[in-house]
Specification:
It is built from 3 helices and no strands. The chain is an all-alpha fold. Among the domains are: 33 residues; 52 residues, no CATH class. Belongs to the SWI5/SAE3 family. InterPro entries: DNA-repair_Swi5 (IPR010760). Keywords: Coiled coil, DNA damage, DNA repair.
């Protein structure tokens, strides 16, 4: 009854952190090599020249983009309202107001022409307004 527990199994110093049930890796297998890919032919002078030309164009375009961004950032504070959507809404409202005023003016000129018994064109000319205005 007073027996001590059995001693732990001996450890193999050659195994490296493998569970006791696992089979240690085989060291006699040759290392695997990647499958060789077909070599692409070296680019010819024309291809290299084209590549350099395209890279130069790309660098030029990137420089232009940076210049335009700098110019945009320089001009943005000068805008009355930098929010484009608000500017469009304001312009639409102003056009609506203009059209209402123009329609009222056209109606008044027509009434004036009727009361005088003259053509509307004559009233327009009197006020310095073109027919197509």
């Amino acid at each position: 009854m007073g027996q001590s527990p059995p001693p732990p199994p001996p450890t193999d110093s050659s195994s490296t952190n493998h569970p006791p049930d696992a089979t240690p890796p085989a060291h006699d297998t040759p290392p695997t090599t990647e499958p060789s890919t077909p070599k692409t032919p070296a680019p010819d002078a024309k291809t290299l020249k084209r590549k350099l030309s395209l890279e130069a164009k790309l660098a030029n375009l990137r420089a232009q983009i940076q210049e335009l961004k700098a110019r945009r950032d320089e001009l943005r504070p000068q805008l009355r309202n930098p929010d484009a959507a608000m500017t469009v809404k304001r312009h639409i409202r102003l056009l609506h107001d203009y059209n209402e005023i123009r329609d009222i003016g056209t109606g008044l000129m027509g009434m004036a022409a009727d009361s005088r018994g003259v053509r509307v064109r004559d009233v327009y000319a009197e006020f310095g307004v073109e027919v197509n205005d």
